[in-house]
Amino acid sequence: MFHRVIDFKKLRLNMSDLTPNGNNKILFGNMFKSDGFSVGLLFYRRKRKKNESVVVLNLGDFIHEEVVADYQPISLDPERKSLFTAVVCLESTKQIRKSSTKEYYHLTGSTVYSKKLESRKQRSGILPIETNMPTSKTASPDSYHEHISYMLTHLNKLLMFYGRDTARCHFQLYQCRQRAPEMIVNMLTHGTAKYNKLKRKKKRKKNVKRGEKKKKSNMGEKEYAKLDKTAKKHVQAQKSSMRGGKQTVFDNEKTREAAGELIVLTIDEFKTSKTCSSCFDSNLGIVKTPYFKGNSVLACPKCKKVWQRDVNAAINMMTISRAVWMGEERPEVFTRSK
């Protein structure tokens, strides 16, 4: 019945491919859901058989001449607060490419949507309802009963707020979440307009009157200090909930590897961030100043160079790869003691 109602050709699928015959890679689950704006279809994917061989490549499977002639090597260091820091090419004129989690979530559209959603909550009075909501994560029957009573009291307001009007925004966010990892991987492999001036579109300059400044979208320190504890927790939870960008980008890289577009190799990062990439001294020290906090800036006491931790690690990873491709052993400073 579903193939009469739904045109699967729009999805580049034929009904004969979805009909169970023992050789299908994808099966239709005979289920679709709708929120009034978009429709979600359920498909089943065949599991990988145990006897199917999986080829795992490493650095030793390549040689230097092959890499220079056929590939563009990129050493990638996943950061703690950012998505990645990458060093492109083996030459001395190597390029450093970076992408932050702030940039990733801007591409997904979640930051703009969160700002609009917060303003809507304040106007409609939903924000104090959600702020004062008792937690449902409890083992106490009385506390859980309090949560249920609170939800039933404000259920109509919550359903009216999260009704059909938010369906369009949810679908657009889904599209952006699918698009953002592709854009990040393109930035990593091809540079895109961020690292290639020729690909940038020329934009007209907007005339801004003197004395007028754009208001910052982020909440200032003074405004944040005026909030009560419950509101501060709400803001902190919203910021800390942004996770999973690194894993999503890595999964997209593996998908492209399966399609034959690139090859992903893993490497041991032992002492790559603690060793100077210029003189290979392993006594890098953290630069401490009263102007900023953290351990991302390192200084070498031997050659007096200052490094950003992740850039230094990415360069060392490229040094290790070059040594292996040249037929040499892994540098001793990056070798684990047996």
UniProtKB/TrEMBL annotation:
Coiled coil: none
InterPro entries assigned: Cas12f1-like_TNB
Keywords: DNA-binding
Ranges of biased composition (kind: Basic and acidic residues): 218-230
Region span, Disordered: 197-246
Compositional bias of kind Basic residues: 197-217
Residue ranges of every copy of the Cas12f1-like TNB domain listed in the record: 263-317
Gene Ontology molecular-function annotations: DNA binding
Xref: Pfam families: Cas12f1-like_TNB (PF07282)
Name the record gives this protein: Cas12f1-like TNB domain-containing protein
Name of the gene this protein is made from: PARPA_08609.1 scaffold 33405
